[in-house]
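Inverse folding, one chain.
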């Protein structure tokens, strides 16, 4: 089969790899029909995730058709259409029983990280019964790809961990796919004002169509001053970091109000400076983490009822054998006006 393979920092190839086989009774082999590229994949290619070794097939999102199942798999059979979760869960360990699937003793985020991922014609999914979701017959598969990772990530780590409440003023620093997912799902809780902050004016315009009440452009607007003016000098109730660089985390520290929350969603490859000498007295909460995907069933329901339409995040479409072109577009998002790329078999 063909697959997108990491060959060390800055290097990737679309090459022939062995088709995966059942290794354990709980495994499921899925023929990938749609996948996508995540910002985390770009971090990997920069060398920010040293656990990813040369030769690894990248990708942790997608939908597909079950090709084969292990003897212990009860919920799926060949031919079933499935959503692939970015997090693998055994469902039995102490962390899984607390719904901390990201920290499963025999799983967590392993696809495209510690084992081969979804940017390939086929993928092996360990613990298939707990790591796949059946796709309803009338579901939009393109939208479902967004539920593999970015939607639950934005909702759980940004909105839930940030304790967004009705009437809050929230700021989302970073208008990429995850930041937009925060924007879409934050509206479940009816915040009063949603401020989107980014350096890309195109993404800020898109954010307005998705429900942002205010936008601020890095490099053009004085972000901190504008936020303080908007909030009568108080700062925002929730500051959500959705990029993963020191400057954006620092912005969150400067704009959060007393009693507020900073929710870090971005994947950081470098350390940040925590201004605890200023924050300790402000009674704030700081949260961060890896998505557990425990909200995926709920998000599936919101998709089916039309409460949210993550397919709106898709700006470009490619065939699987055009994945190198897709990386070029996604890696130059501002130039290409790209948000999320969809890659189909």
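Residues assigned per position:
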């Amino acid at each position: 089969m063909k697959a997108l393979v990491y060959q060390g920092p800055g290097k990737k190839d679309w090459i022939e790899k062995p088709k995966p086989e059942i290794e354990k009774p709980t495994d499921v082999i899925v023929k990938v029909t749609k996948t996508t590229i995540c910002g985390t994949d770009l971090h990997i290619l920069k060398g920010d995730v040293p656990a990813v070794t040369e030769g690894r097939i990248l990708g942790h999102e997608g939908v597909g058709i079950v090709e084969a199942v292990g003897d212990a798999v009860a919920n799926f059979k060949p031919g079933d259409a499935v959503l692939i979760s970015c997090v693998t869960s055994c469902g039995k360990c102490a962390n899984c029983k607390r719904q901390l699937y990201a920290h499963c003793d025999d799983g967590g985020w392993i696809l495209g990280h510690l084992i081969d991922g979804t940017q390939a014609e086929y993928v092996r999914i360990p613990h298939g019964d707990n790591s796949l979701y059946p796709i309803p017959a009338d579901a939009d598969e393109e939208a479902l790809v967004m539920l593999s990772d970015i939607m639950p990530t934005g909702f759980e780590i940004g909105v839930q961990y940030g304790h967004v409440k009705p009437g809050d003023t929230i700021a989302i620093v970073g208008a990429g796919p995850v930041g937009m997912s925060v924007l879409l799902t934050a509206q479940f809780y009816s915040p009063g004002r949603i401020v989107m902050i980014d350096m890309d004016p195109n993404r800020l315009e898109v954010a307005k169509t998705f429900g942002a009440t205010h936008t601020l452009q890095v490099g053009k607007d004085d972000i901190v001053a504008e936020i303080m003016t908007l909030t009568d000098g108080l700062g925002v109730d929730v500051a959500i970091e959705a990029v993963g660089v020191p400057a954006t985390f620092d912005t969150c520290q400067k704009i959060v109000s007393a009693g507020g929350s900073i929710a870090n969603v971005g994947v950081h490859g470098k350390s940040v400076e925590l201004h605890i000498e200023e924050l300790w007295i402000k009674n704030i909460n700081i949260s961060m983490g890896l998505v557990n995907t425990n909200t995926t069933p709920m998000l599936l329901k919101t998709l089916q009822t039309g409460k949210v339409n993550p397919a709106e995040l898709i700006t470009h479409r490619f065939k699987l054998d055009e994945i190198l072109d897709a990386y070029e577009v996604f890696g130059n998002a501002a130039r290409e006006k790209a948000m999320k790329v969809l890659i189909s078999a």
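The chain has a mean pLDDT of 96. The two ends are 12 Å apart (CA to CA).
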